[in-house]
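Hello,

Following up on my earlier ticket. Below are the two sequence lines again, exactly as submitted.
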Amino acid sequence: MSESPSSQAEELKLRERLAKLRDLPLLRGVGVSGEMSRLKRQLDRMGSEPSADDVWHSVELARHQDRPYTLDYVERICEDFVELHGDRALADDPAIVAGLARFDGRTVVLVGHQKGRDIRERTHRNFGMTYPEGYRKAMRVMELADRHRFPFVTLVDTPGAYPGVTAEQHGQGGWIARCQLTMVRLAVPSVTCVIGEGGSGGAVAIAIADRVLMQENAIYSVISPEGCAAILWRDAGEAKKAAAAFKPDAAHCLELGVVDGIVPEPAGGAPADHDEAARLLAESLRAALAEVEPLDPEERRRQRRRRFRAMGVYLE
Amino acid sequence: MESRIDVTVENREGERAEGDGKRHPNTCPRCHSHYRDDELEQTLRVCPQCGHHFPVRARERIAQLADRGTFAEEDAGLRSADPLSFFDLRAYTDRLAEAEVATGLGDALIAGAAAIERRPCELAVMDFAFMGGSMGSTVGEKFARACDRAASRQVPLVSVTASGGARMQEGILSLMQLPKTVCAVDELREARCALISIMTHPTTAGVLASFASLGDVIVSEPGALLAFTGPRVVQQTTREKLPDDFGLAESNSRFGHVDAIVPRAELRPFVGRLLAMFLQAQ
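Thanks for your patience. The regenerated structure is below:
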């Protein structure tokens, strides 16, 4: 990694803060000492941390047009798949696919965003940007999974929930909230993998699983680099800087405890070899499910809740 | 295609710059009447001429809602850390310090025990003046603890939201506050305690897409913007013609997303009645 001026400035800032914390009388106790060891770790890591270029490389690979999408994986890792359509209320949202799948010799319920390969399909799939109807479809197959004790698998790949008038009128925010609540309450084991773009609320709606995984070159973020740049730098062209600042890559998400594991991709990234990417994904999904399946359903739910309750860093 | 997502704050900054940038905060944007601060305080910050609801800061909101002297703040010492060492044009730590000085608040949410119309409850109130009411780890943790306290005291939780969404400067951790607060509400529900969600202007993005929408009863104030994506971003992204009432409480009511729109002057007795209903049931 080349030493850019910004990373030097960052290191300087960290050292200053560390010095400040050392000088504080130990009044605030645990919170501060935790902060100190964190800062130390951060300093130790500075040399090996992914650089701005590495992060941006992930962003590009995560959005690569040849990246395998949910149905590409389904085709390769499921012995059979019956797609289920519709939210039983209003519509079928093509930006999310849901279905019963045979995976690893048993039935699971699978839900994933679907972006679409060519312009026609992309338009049909709305670029993987979900309407409330999509979350409702996801919710009703979550309930189906629970009823029949089928493990629940989701694949996340969306730029975000669709920002449109109808979507708003149909209650976009509320359905994202309720979709999360339904998923966190599942009695059956669940696993999520971010396979491309984990864009904000649209992604997190179906990502409240016992184990959350992320592919090596996927990104998971609160806002798109362009959006962040437009707001904070007042210039969408600063997307690369923004991405480096909010660190949406897998290594950082793992370090922050947001994901439990990173799913390796074949050399050159998932777009280069769909079959191998699928094999690696299947392996990780299998291992993750095996970890959580033996647990008692109540205990599993408690642990899932505890996992998400623990998210965040603050000073006491 | 550029990804367009929006659980984040600060669409409003742009709006302010374009529209009524020079408007004094005590000038009514609707009828242009101007008031002294004490006049507005008297009228609960509602324009006596046209009924426009001005924004209310968290402490004042608590004074409006809670019985005098009953609010006991908790977790006042919680502060945001800077897990990403985030630096855009300025350091996140500087922005935090500045917001604390400007607002007198530790972060964008105040929580504690209170009584409303002599009914006990837990109260969690957001303040838009603190970095756009954005939800980072501290707001998430304070809300979650408020849920815990409500559950252990077996009282309803009353939340008053005003937020631009997730706090970008905490990156993915701010997104994780959505599931975190959702989990906290799940535990509150398991303890069979009610969540009364009062959505005030503006309740948007990450806060709307998490705990605010999970209220057993959802109440809003007239004219409040309640939208996952704000009008400016929707307009820019889709080039659609937006309805005049896009995202407003009235539109949300028409589409079935809120239980009641209650003018500010009636809010306190209304919440009091709800508390009486829920406390009886326990």
